[in-house]
Each structure stands twice: as structure tokens, then as C-alpha cells.
Design a protein that fits this description.
Two copies of one chain form a homodimer. Chain A has helices at 42-47, 93-96, 127-130, 143-147, 152-162, 178-189, 202-211, 221-231, 247-256, 296-307, 326-334, and strands at 2-8, 11-16, 28-36, 55-56, 61-68, 80-83, 86-87, 107-108, 121-124, 132-134, 170-174, 194-198, 215-217, 237-242, 257-265, 273-275, 287-290, 319-322, 341-344. Chain A has 345 residues and is α/β, with parallel strands linked by helices. Chain A has two domains: 2-151 and 294-344, Medium-chain alcohol dehydrogenases, catalytic domain (Quinone Oxidoreductase, Chain A, domain 1, Alpha-Beta Complex), CATH 3.90.180.10; 156-290, NAD(P)-binding Rossmann-like Domain (Rossmann fold), CATH 3.40.50.720. In chain A, strands 3, 5, 6, 9, 10, 18 and 19 form a seven-stranded mixed beta sheet that branches. In chain A, strand 14 (237-242), helix 9 (247-256) and strand 15 form a beta-alpha-beta unit.
Chain lengths: 345, 345
């Protein structure tokens, strides 16, 4: 089969490799029908050292079950499924607490002998706990939105959930990438009263407005903070959803959060240490949280929202390539010519 | 009247000063009948630069209202009252959200022209919102516990509340000072299943056991972390209440917190930057919060718990001095000869 590998910064290749096979009785083999490129795939695309071994890429997909291991009873060949970007058993105490990304039997695509999803087929460990079926006759028009439940929309949702967005709360979203826009949509779903989107790409912030942003602040740094404070009577917003991951975004976050409020991060931090003392978080009782989204915890509730037309998170996709042209998908996202790109094997 | 001032590290003096008077119509004058020394008073006792001007000291007290300003309608001379360590209007949006320490009309004793409470009398700004009355004929035996509602017990309670301690949760408390022990008692009140107290002073950890600690870990640093992980099957506890404020305590906190758990801090951070990235908090979806306790939010519910004998947080007091001997109270706490000292004007 064909699968995507990254050999170094900017070097994405499609190669012919052996089809995956069942290794554990808890595995399933899924034929990928729709995958995509994630903002997080761009980190190695920028910085990966070149080497002789390629890293398997991709972790978001919809597909058809082809084969299941002997311990998988709730899935059968032919089932149409969505996979969360992390696999998990969905039964351990961590999963039951809603933190599937901490499952001791869990892991990630493209690591530990599991392939990537920008491929024709993928082996899914812990298939019973991981894969979620959707109707085999689902209208094609819903597929992009269903694909976002693999990662991007539910990562935005995780931010809003951890940020404890409830009706009447005011929210700032930092970042107008696909995760930031998803966070806007999720905050709107959870009843946020006012949603300030900090972003400066007007085509993206326009989609943010369509998703529910009430205000757009293109300014950054101190100017951006001043603008959000001005919009909120000097107090800031109850919740800040930080979907960037760089230190300036963190600094903006504690600059615009209201005393007693929450900064919820889903942008993977590109720093380890940050201000958390009296002058930044402690003195004003600010909560800091977030992390890798336990998508599996939210996916079953989101599917009917998509199929019922309540949410349309698939609008973050604005381009599509074949698997053979996956390198072009990376290039389009890296150059910001596209927000998020579907890849069809 | 006599009042306590600190002139530099180790230099605590009682001086004769003018009685406070009503300045704003929202003020009350309270005759202090019972005050105490706070762990936070020991910070300047260690490090304050000597100078010609003394800082007024003390922020925890019970007393009798002597006079009220024209805008104070819910208090009258003769009322027995407890004061939170911070004053607040109790009506603004921040107070209504339960974050009285962020009240824009609020402030702290010993600053901005308001005296300290280790004194015969004190002016209380925003008296209607701040002071909480208790029965004038209250049994004397309850007074120490009622005094802890001014700060120490409800600071421990704030930690547990922000840490979202609920029945069945496991909790680690870091620090066996009066706030740490109060956090143990509060965690027990909120239904914690298992409470691991990290502290190495056995007289204090014994009181911690009486307050509800199920395990005591005297080891610190990596050894302490290993011990707590061993006690919890390698997973750590759902909640960590950090009542120290130094970096090693913070490092212990993220070492022993369970994935998806909460680190709630009430020890005033003696650092500004700390690890919060993928390797410490983000990768495991850890929440970090806490701050100065909005005692006023909790005090009314706690009074009947004290008067009903349900909680006895006053057991943290193990010594008493007169106001004239307040310097001795500081010395006893600084030398760890006493855990917490009552000061009677």
C-alpha cells in the first residue's frame, strides 16, 4: 500500500510499504477513506532533522474496517468508523475520568510500531475502545465535519470544556488556525455570550465570525491585550482558549483573562517554563489547564450534532489533495494558502 | 491605642498610636478581641529591610463593632464580628463570582491607610460587605475556631474548593503548617477518600491525622514523590493542595498529581516562572490554580459548622500571647516552637 513518511523538514514522501496486519487480538485494520494534515504535522515539517528513516505521518481519519482481531467484538468488516487521533481502551480509570490521552494502554499513530493515517490502511490498536462507528450510508456532505471529530474540532472543544465555558461566559480565543476556529465554534456551542477572536488573517477570522465570534482583534502583544481589555470594560474575559502554543500567546492569555478566570491551552507549548507566580496567575486566582484532547470522550455526543446540522466544523477544510499529492497538502498549509487540507487515499 | 508594627526583619514593636476613626461612610471601627500571627507575616519577619517607618501588622481578627459610618446599615455597635483578611464590597461582579480578593473596592489590612489587626482597634473599609456577625453570647471555646475563618482555615478550604475535591477523590497536601493542616481538614470535609499529608514535623502531622490525613509522607523531593506514587499504585492523586509556596513544593506537586488532576496552590509563590509545558503540566492535562483565598465567599457556611462542632480548625492554635508580647508570638512561630499563636489585645 501507499503511505506518507517525513524524512526531514519539508521532505514528505509517499512510499509503497507492506499492508499492516493484525498484531494484537485487540487490533483492527482500517482502510482509510479520508485523512487530513494537522497543524501539529507542520512542526516537524519546519524543524525535523533529515535522516535515512522516514516518520509515518497522519493521525486523523475516517475509514472502513477491513479486519478485526479476535478480541474485537463491537466492530465488523465493512463498518464505517472515525478514529480519535489517540487510541485508548475506553475502559480504564483514566478513560472513565474522561482523560483518554492518559490511558495506560493507549498511544498515538505513527509511533510504537503503529503506522500513520495519511496512508491507504492503518492498524488501529485497542480498536474496540478507539473506533466509533457512523452510519454506512451517511451523506457524503457530512464527511469533512465528521473527519474533524478525529482531532481538530474536538481539540477546540476540549479547550472550551476545560475552560468551563458555560452560558453567559465571555471567552477570548487566541489563534485563527483550524484549532482556534474550532474553539470558537465549541465555545459558541457551550453557550458563550461573547467570543473575542484574536487573529489577523481576515479570511480565517471571517470563518471565526461565522462560527460565533462576536469580536475580532487583529492586534498582537500589548496592543492586542489593551484592545481586549477595552472591549471588556477593563476586566478581560472569563475564559481564554489558547490555540497557538508560543510564549507570546501565553503572555496574551494572562493579559486578557479576567480575575478568577481560566486559561485553557490546546496549542502544544513550545516552552517549558512560563510565568505562574503572584504577578501573572496566582495573585488573581487564574486557573491554567488544557493538554492533548481526549477526543474519544466527546466524539459520541458530537456525531449527532454534525448529522443534525447543528455544527459544521468541516468548514475548516478549504483544500483537498490525493494521497499521491500529500506533499502539496503540506505545502499549501505551510504557506498558509490553505487552512486545512483533506487527503484522499 | 496600642498597635503592632514591623520595622525590619525580626523587629516587631507595639506602639501607642491614635485610635482609628471613620474615614468613609462605608467604614466601621472594630475593637479587636482576638487576633493572631499568620505564616505570611513571617515573610517580612525574615526579609524586610530595616527602615524608619514601621508597617502595620495583622489581618486576622474577631472583634466588637464600636462605630459605623453612615452608609453601614447591617451592623451596629456591640455586634461581635469576624473579618476576612481582605475587605470587599460583597456586591460587585467579582464578589458575586466568588472572587472577593479581586473586588475593585477591596483591599488588605495594613495597607492604603488601613491599619493592621494586631492592635486594639482597626478601621474596616467596606464594612457591610466585609464583616460577618456571630452570636454575641457565643461560647468562648469556639472563638479560636471562629478566628481561623478570618484566614487560615478558609485558605485551606479555598485550596480544596479550587482543587475540586469531591467525595471519592484522592488528595495530597504539601506542607504541614497551619494552612496545610487546614487544607487536610477542608479536603476531609469535602469528602476526600484518601488524604496524603507531606510533612516531617510529627507533632504537626499528628494533628493532620486528627484532621483526616490517611497517610503521612515525611520524605521530600524525589523521595517524597516516589513515596506518594507508591501509595497510589503509581498514578498519584487526583488533587494536590500546595501550601508552601517554594519551588521544591511546586515540583513535588506536579510529581505526585494524577493525569487529568489539579494542583491548587495557596502557598504564596516565592517564584514567578515555573514548569508548565508538555513535560510537566500540559502533556498530562494537569490543571494549575489557586490564589489569595476569597474567604468572604466561604465564611457564612463555615460558621455553623464550627458552632455545630462539625469542624474544629482552631486546633491549629497552640500558643497565646498578649498584644504587648506580640514579638514573642512572632519568635515562637519563626522558631517553630509554636504552630500558630493567638494574640489578645
Amino acid at each position: 500500500m501507499r503511505a506518507t513518511f517525513m524524512y526531514g523538514a519539508g521532505d514528505v514522501r509517499v512510499e509503497e510499504v507492506a499492508d499492516p496486519t493484525i498484531v494484537e487480538p485487540t487490533d483492527a485494520i482500517v482502510r482509510v477513506t479520508m485523512a487530513c494534515v494537522c497543524g501539529s504535522d507542520l512542526h516537524p515539517y519546519h524543524s525535523m532533522s533529515a535522516g535515512p528513516t522516514g516518520s509515518p505521518m497522519g493521525h486523523e481519519f475516517i475509514g472502513v474496517v477491513e479486519e478485526v482481531g479476535g478480541a474485537v467484538s463491537n466492530l465488523k468488516p465493512g463498518d464505517l468508523v472515525i478514529s480519535p487521533f489517540a487510541y485508548s481502551d475506553n475502559t480504564c480509570p483514566f478513560c472513565r475520568e474522561g482523560f483518554h490521552t492518559a490511558c495506560p494502554h493507549g498511544g498515538f499513530y505513527g509511533a510504537d510500531g503503529v503506522g500513520g493515517a495519511q496512508a491507504e490502511r492503518v492498524r488501529v490498536p485497542q480498536a474496540s475502545g478507539t473506533l466509533v462507528t457512523i452510519p454506512a450510508d451517511v451523506d457524503e456532505k457530512f464527511l469533512p465535519s465528521l473527519l474533524t471529530l478525529s482531532d481538530v474540532y474536538l481539540t477546540g472543544y476540549h479547550a472550551a470544556h476545560m475552560g468551563r465555558v458555560t452560558p453567559g461566559k465571555s471567552v477570548t480565543v487566541i489563534g485563527d488556525g483550524a484549532v482556534g476556529l474550532s474553539a470558537v465554534l465549541a465555545a459558541k456551542q457551550l453557550g458563550a455570550d461573547r467570543i473575542v477572536l484574536m487573529g489577523r488573517h481576515s479570511d480565517r477570522t471571517d470563518l471565526g465570525r461565522a462560527f460565533g465570534a462576536t469580536d475580532v482583534v487583529p492586534e498582537r502583544g500589548a496592543d492586542g491585550v489593551a484592545k481586549v481589555l477595552e472591549l471588556t470594560g477593563g476586566d478581560g474575559t472569563h475564559v481564554v482558549l489558547e490555540a497557538v502554543g508560543h510564549m507570546p500567546a501565553y503572555e496574551q492569555a494572562y493579559g486578557v483573562v479576567r480575575s478568577g478566570g481560566v486559561i485553557s491551552r490546546v496549542g502544544v507549548p513550545q516552552y517549558e517554563k512560563a510565568p505562574v507566580g503572584f504577578g501573572s496567575l496566582f495573585g488573581r486566582n487564574i486557573t491554567l489547564n488544557g493538554g492533548p484532547a481526549p477526543v474519544r470522550a466527546y466524539i459520541e455526543a458530537a456525531i449527532p450534532q454534525v448529522l443534525g446540522g447543528e455544527i459544521d466544523p468541516g468548514r475548516v477544510f478549504d483544500a483537498e489533495t490525493s494521497l499521491d499529492d500529500v506533499a502539496e497538502a503540506y505545502r499549501l498549509m505551510d504557506s498558509r494558502e490553505a487552512l486545512k487540507v483533506i487527503v484522499r487515499p
